């Protein structure tokens, strides 16, 4: 049901976007754009399928990927794209195989295939819906709040994005590694979601639905706190420009070229949700998720996509999403409604600061203290929620099939 509604929304958005002459979802139907989600879909399938199914899809997918590589090189395109965005053929084979299983099987086998197909399509559908919406806000929100974000970061005594950006410039391999981490967040998300499903141990409703909820709320916050990030703001030399700022900017900046998707960092939000879900999947998954979250934080800063404060504001968004998605805990319990309210209050508070209605930068040390307090409060509240969740029977939590609206 939910998957069908998403398809209708996608088609409706396509028609409206084309009629208005703005970017439509079909503009993103390219192997490069879809490859991270495609590779992630194959990883999900590989973990949850039988060996025979896995090998069949792998053979077809590698064949499709070989064709894609040949066409890419014959067209004279940058080979680096193949390194950063592999797996399109594997994803197409996965989606095709699961769709075939849905159409030709029956009973529990069909339900299993439908659940997997819905989950495998959740991220690409989400991207196709979200990006045109983000781009559509550019003419509606011409005034940016980047100057306040720069001042909040400066309250730390330095510019974190500039520091990491300069580090990446001196270490090209480190730069490429973090490019891979940044673009392959769907892969980490789907691997942990597959581990959740296989172990029948979930945090709240499950990782994929939680990440979709975060994207929807995050879009609303983009509108509340419009900003574009260091690289779009300063250009490719953002690290040097920020490091040598003679004076902190104060005036509101007008920009009509770049998407408003800086604060909060959805990449950091998703990475933290991945970490929270991976805690229950064994020490290897736990440590891997910690490393991935740290790598994502460095990538968002060093690539010039986000300011440090964007990462801080992502933390109350994570808490809010966790509380919303903790369906196994009654809303009347304070362990659920307190995190819910705290997440809302902190997000509203930071929006007032970023929109310069409140300004803590005038008091030395106050802004860093607020950042530290935000992170500490959110992780403490989430920990209390987790302890209560672990006392709730797993049968009360949603299955992976909730993505399709097909859970029993």
UniProtKB/TrEMBL annotation:
* Predominant cellular place of this UniProt entry's protein: membrane
Presence of keyword Methyltransferase: no
Q: Which GO terms describe its cellular component?
A: membrane
Keywords (A to Z) from UniProt: Membrane, Transmembrane, Transmembrane helix
- Its transmembrane ranges are 33-50, 57-76, 82-104, 116-141, 173-193, 205-225, 307-325, 337-357, 363-381
**Per the database record, which ranges form the Inositolphosphotransferase Aur1/Ipt1 domain?**
149-321
Q: Which Pfam families match?
A: PAP2_3
Entry's PANTHER family?
PA-PHOSPHATASE RELATED-FAMILY PROTEIN DDB_G0268928, PTHR31310
Q: What is this protein called?
A: Inositolphosphotransferase Aur1/Ipt1 domain-containing protein
Q: Which organism is it from?
A: Teichococcus rhizosphaerae
């Amino acid at each position: 049901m939910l998957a069908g509604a998403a398809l209708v929304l996608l088609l409706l958005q396509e028609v409206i976007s084309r009629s208005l002459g703005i970017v439509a979802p079909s503009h993103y139907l390219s192997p490069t754009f879809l490859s991270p989600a495609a590779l992630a879909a194959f990883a999900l399938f590989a973990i949850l399928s039988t060996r025979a199914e896995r090998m069949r899809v792998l053979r077809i997918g590698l064949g499709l990927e070989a064709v894609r590589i040949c066409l890419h090189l014959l067209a004279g395109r940058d080979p680096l794209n193949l390194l950063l965005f592999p797996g399109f053929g594997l994803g197409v084979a996965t989606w095709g195989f699961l769709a075939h299983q849905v159409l030709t099987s029956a009973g529990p086998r069909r339900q299993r295939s439908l659940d997997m197909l819905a989950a495998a399509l959740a991220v690409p559908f989400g991207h196709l819906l979200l990006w045109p919406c983000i781009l559509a806000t550019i003419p509606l929100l011409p005034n940016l709040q980047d100057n306040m974000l720069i001042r909040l970061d400066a309250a730390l005594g330095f510019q974190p994005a500039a520091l990491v950006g300069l580090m990446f410039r001196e270490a090209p391999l480190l730069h490429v590694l973090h490019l891979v981490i940044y673009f392959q967040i769907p892969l980490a998300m789907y691997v942990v979601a597959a581990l959740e499903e296989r172990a029948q141990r979930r945090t709240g409703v499950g990782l994929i639905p939680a990440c979709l909820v975060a994207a929807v709320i995050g879009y609303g916050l983009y509108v509340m706190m419009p900003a574009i990030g260091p690289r779009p703001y300063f250009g490719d030399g953002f690290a040097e420009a920020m490091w040598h700022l003679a004076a902190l900017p104060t005036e509101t900046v007008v920009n009509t070229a770049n998407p408003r998707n800086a604060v909060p960092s959805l990449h950091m939000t998703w990475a933290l949700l991945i970490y929270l879900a991976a805690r229950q999947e064994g020490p290897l998954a736990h440590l891997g998720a910690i490393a991935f979250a740290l790598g994502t934080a460095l990538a968002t800063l060093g690539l010039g996509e986000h300011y440090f404060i964007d990462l801080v504001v992502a933390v109350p968004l994570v808490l809010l999403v966790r509380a919303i998605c903790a369906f196994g805990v009654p809303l009347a319990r304070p362990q659920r409604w307190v995190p819910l309210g705290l997440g809302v209050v902190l997000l509203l508070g930071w929006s007032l600061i970023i929109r310069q209605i409140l300004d803590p930068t005038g008091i030395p040390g106050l802004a860093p203290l607020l950042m530290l307090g935000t992170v500490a409060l959110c992780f403490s509240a989430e920990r209390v929620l987790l302890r209560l969740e672990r006392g709730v029977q797993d049968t009360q939590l949603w299955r992976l099939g909730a993505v399709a609206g097909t859970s029993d």
